[in-house]
Design a protein that fits this description.
- This protein is of the alpha/beta class.
- It has a single domain, classed as 6-pyruvoyl tetrahydropterin synthase/QueD (Tetrahydropterin Synthase, Chain A, 2-Layer Sandwich).
- Helices cover 27% and strands 34% of the residues.
- The chain has a 6-stranded mixed sheet with strand order 4-3-1-2-5-6, sandwiched between helices.
- Strand 3, helix 2 and strand 4 form a beta-alpha-beta unit.
- Helix 1 crosses helix 3.
- It is elongated.
Length: 152
């Protein structure tokens, strides 16, 4: 058996989140929500550690789940995501009314949320495991995708 061939693992997550795109010329400038689907693919070599519980694994799916929970889901699931450009008085009202208002230093488009997710997950992966592909589905028919092979 050739354990020098890289293997890709993918885990799929779902979460609910609301956001608004201030300045956008369309309906998405208003507060609205989505049922997001997040696909995380990592790449690495299966471990050769006879007698160890991780023998034969690139990484345990439960460990990937924990990383994504800590890096993404804890912040985004059932949250309202807004850019820091929203006026302080508006943010104050929202934060008094709702428990999970998150302010980010970017326009919370699917594309920029995807890059945020990539950055956070990449930092948390164990040595020898690389982030390979991430898809963030904003709707059932629309998604943004990042691939490691596209980076320069």
């Amino acid at each position: 058996m050739n354990r020098t061939t890289p293997i890709r693992l993918t885990k799929i997550f779902t979460f609910e989140m609301a956001h608004a795109l201030p300045g956008y010329e369309g309906d998405c400038k208003n507060l609205h929500g989505h049922s997001y689907r997040l696909e995380i693919t990592v790449r690495g070599l299966p471990q050769h550690r006879p007698g160890h519980s991780g023998d034969g694994m690139v990484m345990d799916f439960k460990d990937l789940k924990k990383i994504v929970k800590n890096a993404v889901l804890d912040d985004f699931d059932h949250a309202l995501l807004l850019p820091e450009s929203v006026p302080d008085d508006v943010l104050g009202v929202l934060k008094r009314q709702f428990e999970k208002v998150r302010v980010v230093p970017f326009q919370p488009t699917c594309e920029l949320m995807l890059l945020h997710v990539v950055e956070n997950i990449r930092e948390a992966l164990p040595p020898g495991v690389e982030l390979w592909n991430v898809r963030l589905h904003e709707t059932g028919t629309s998604f943004a995708e990042w691939c490691a092979t596209d980076e320069v």
